[in-house]
Amino acid sequence: MGADASRFHARKGGENEVTAIADEAARQRFAHELDRNFSVIASAGSGKTRAITERILEIAKQGHRALEWLPQLVVVTYTNRAADEMQQRTRQRILEAGLPLEIVEAFGRAYFGTIHAFCMKLLATYGHRLGLPARLETITDDDDLWNEFVQQQTEIGHSLGHKNRRPLLRLMQAQQLMELARNQDHHFVPPQSLGQCPECDFSKVEAAVESAQTNIPKAKAQLRGWLRRWHDTDEFAPWPPCATTAKEFTSCWREAFRPLREWASACASCVAAEVQRDYREFRLAHGAITYSDQVALAVELLRLPDVAMQIRGKNYRVLLDEAQDTDPQQFCVLLETTRPVKARGEWLQTKRDPPRLGQFCMVGDFQQSIYRDPNDLNHYRTLHDALVETRAAEQLKFSVTFRLDQAQLDFVNETFVKIFNNTEGQVEFVKLSPRPEILPGQVIRFELGDDIDLSLSETQRAQAEAERLAKWIRDVGLQKLRARCWREVAVLCPRKTWLGPLRRALLKERIPVEVQSESDRQAEHPAYAWLTALLAIMVDPNASYEIVGVLREVFGLSDDELARFAQGDGYKFQFEHKIPGRGAVAGTLNLLRRVRDVLPHQPLFSAVREIVRMTQLRERLRDLPREQFGDSVSELEKLLSAAAAAEAQQESLADFALTLRRNFDKIRETEPAEADAVQLITAHKAKGSEWDAVIVPFLAREARLGGNIRYPLVIPGEQPFIAFDRSDRANLEDEMKKIQRQEMERLLYVALTRARHTLVLALDAEFFRGKRGVHSDTQLKWLQADANEPNYMVVSSLSDQAAACEETAARHMAAALEPVADSLSALRLETGWVDIARQQAACIIQTVTPSQLGPEEEPGETPDTEEWIEIEPELRPARIANPATRYGIWWHEFAQKIPWLSEGNAWQAAFEANLSLSPEPARSKREWKLLTKYASENPEFFAGNIFAEMPFFWRMNEQNCLEGLIDVALFQPHEKKWFVLDWKTNRIERDQIDKLRVAYRPQIAAYWKAVTEITKRPVSAGIYSTATGDLIAYNEKELAEEWERLRGSQRDELTR
């Protein structure tokens, strides 16, 4: 994240003077013009996090408007870690500003998170309108679900009809079509019209001049064979390969097949859309949802006019970070939620009723678009232009970088202006501007020379480069790299596999190293994989295949030991029954059996912790090399925390094991470095981070962008096309290479803008130069710095000597880096931090909420209304399963908005404004009529000062406190007396009033006691039954007796 992006202080004449930065006007507008929408283009290191924080701080300073606006904030970031950091920074700024506690509380209700979590927030409230199940689990690994779905399919392509389905399935296997539909990265849309299977004209192919050397006769023979099979039989007739690469002939070949291939592409899209829809319904029926489902279903919600009105009625104020990494459907969700309540259609199509002023802002950088489909970048640019052209938003540019020193800034400006030329779809370069008091910086050219044996393999030459670079780093040292510690040095590569040689070379030079990109997926980290495997076999002690994996990977038993134990019988690998005999394998299986025997009737967290203890998993992870796997024990503790959270959601051991298994392929977020070691990381993962010194090696090494292509392949575009083999890509080959090159140019921009003080380029052209020169798929080519290219002289003129800088060192001293905290490991306890925390638990004050003192109910999937209101928003269940709870929540939220001190007309207006949100409108009208009748008959009751949703926090004794929300607190100033009122939406008849009175007496006694002790004033209390229209008052004596009974109860009874 960038440095302070507001103002800098410059010394002049011995006094401090505020120095405005070059783009200060744009930053001030973004922060202070809260009634405007903005689309901000923020260059690398321009302090966009600070800018967003300043805008939120300005909202918080708006007094009464802040109390309304802050809970409506929706701050969307690319990762949860970024959201947490932004929320913490903003909260700190609000506290530093000394704003009232009610503002801090309102800020606590703002949303900070990813677009997917926001979509789940919408689905939790309105998902029942789409028929979604009450509980949905997000999955990343759907192999088991997919296999089950496929086995249930008897026929696909229903929408094609027999005349089209049959020829399509002669060209393609059903399995290919199914796998095409499984692709979550592409949303298939059926074509508007679909003709019959066309006939192709192959006359030009047959007329082509034949030459045996070009294999044209062979290609013609293959074509004739295919035609006979296609016309004369009903057999499977897959696309015939073209046996020649002769340019003119292959062009004729492709043109002849074009009508059939376009028809097949349209049909395949139709089938894929159908299968995608069916598979999503299958997933949802099984309570599973993918990340793409979350967004797609939110879009469906917003296409329901009444639901869209309810969502827009929330008046969300969206601040979108990293807009360049947002896809079209995600943009749709955020845009549509901020439009006027009665807007129709989608704004980008209609250009009518744009987002309301002050309610949609986005911050992004076209130059750093590296994660998405190129069409997503085009969509972002189109959206940006549309917002600006229609005046739905204004464009602002942040060009001042608070990261790069002067040398790096000059280098980036001089080189990338020639690369980002705003032509052929590439983005336009935004020139970086310097900050005040900028440090000098340095860009170093490290020449590897040409003394390399070109007969060595590419891997061997890469290892040689890594060793020379590691020796250079050791010789130069931290001082000349202008880095405060090894953790502030990063080596960036475009490919993960390139990090291995660098790690080995650095360790050889005794330089500490930490690889940040070797574990992209959860399953690639031993802590996650090993614990998941252990839980899986505890659930199924006969899972032979998984048990063998645990014995090999976790317990380190050799294949020889396993083979001698099995004697060819794999079913021996079980521990449901005791294993006779001795030996390492039998002993380990019997250990696993003992572990499983102690698990029954244990809660989830205790069971997982016991598995970890008895298998010595923590100790095994501690023995793994830290430089390769990081802090594995900390990763294990995170999983134990996840188990505790899963237990709170009433999950079983089998449920938790399945959740871990389904998230095997989930991408791990990049974590801040924990050890003082050189960071090895891919350029993709480096985005959003910065270091004092950045080194970019392997500039001339081929990146091999093509990879292994599997067909059929979706080629994106305005009209997506499905390629069935390489010949379908031939006409698009140049375009696809151009798109790939442009993306890699943007990736290189990201890599070269991560360094604060020192940027090092390792020039290795002679190490990897081939017969035709340096390969086009290299960083050197993307930088256009090879011989005779525009940036060659810029790079060649760089200094080859790194030098220390006293000014930079002095700046470091002024802002000394905080030491790495390692307090837990210093305890040298084998129990781990969870057990340490348990030892200190007796010192923690326990919180009791009044709803815990209410009537016991049958356990359900969601809490009742009182519990829901008291739960922190981020801890609430994903869905409100109970209709009664949904109604109770609506009543409480509506009652909070009643203008009690206004005339009756204002009451009625508030009710009518909220009626559309009610899950039971008829019931709402009936019960509202009862409340207004009571108020008219008892006008003195609602006189005085009225406080809705009044929070309280009262310490009962040394170990317990009472915390909650009072629905309505009425203060009668003349009598200096309080009345505490609680809404009850239970469906009851009037003859059941006494039951309601008794059931809620403990809860009301808690309210009564807390307000009495806090205010030191007389307090009365009661409940209002919305179903009967009756106020049920308690007398002081019965409340006092009830409180004495509660206080005398044991703690377990108090919080039952």
Structural features, described:
Mean pLDDT is 85; it is low at 1-18, 817-843, 856-863, 870-879 and 1050-1056. The chain folds into five domains: 22-130 and 292-400, Rossmann fold (3-Layer(aba) Sandwich), CATH 3.40.50.300; 154-285; 442-516 and 692-814, 3-Layer(aba) Sandwich (Rossmann fold), CATH 3.40.50.300; 522-662, PCRA, domain 4, CATH 1.10.486; 846-1054, Lambda Exonuclease, Chain A, CATH 3.90.320. Helices cover 46% and strands 12% of the residues. A hairpin with a 2-residue loop joins strand 1 (8-12) and strand 2 (15-19). The strands form six sheets. A six-stranded parallel sheet has the order 5-4-8-9-3-10, with helices on both faces. Strands 11-18-15-12-14-13 form a six-stranded parallel sheet, sandwiched between helices. Strands 19, 20, 21, 22, 23 and 24 form a six-stranded mixed sheet that branches. The chain contains 46 helices and 24 strands. The protein has 1056 residues and is α/β, with parallel strands linked by helices.
Mean pLDDT: 85
Strand content: 5-15%
Q: Tell me the domain tally.
A: 5
Biggest sheet: strand arrangement: 5-4-8-9-3-10
Q: What is the annotated CATH architecture of the largest domain? A: 3-Layer(aba) Sandwich
Q: In the CATH hierarchy, what is the superfamily of the largest domain?
A: P-loop containing nucleotide triphosphate hydrolases
First-last Cα distance: 46 Å
Helix content: 40-55%
- Strand segment tally: 24
The parts where pLDDT drops under 50 for at least 5 residues are 1-18, 817-843, 856-863, 870-879, 1050-1056
- Whole-number radius of gyration? 33 Å
The best one-word shape is: globular
Please give the count of helices: 46
Report the major sheet.
Answer: 6 strands, parallel
CATH secondary-structure class of the largest domain: Alpha Beta
CATH topology of the largest domain: Rossmann fold
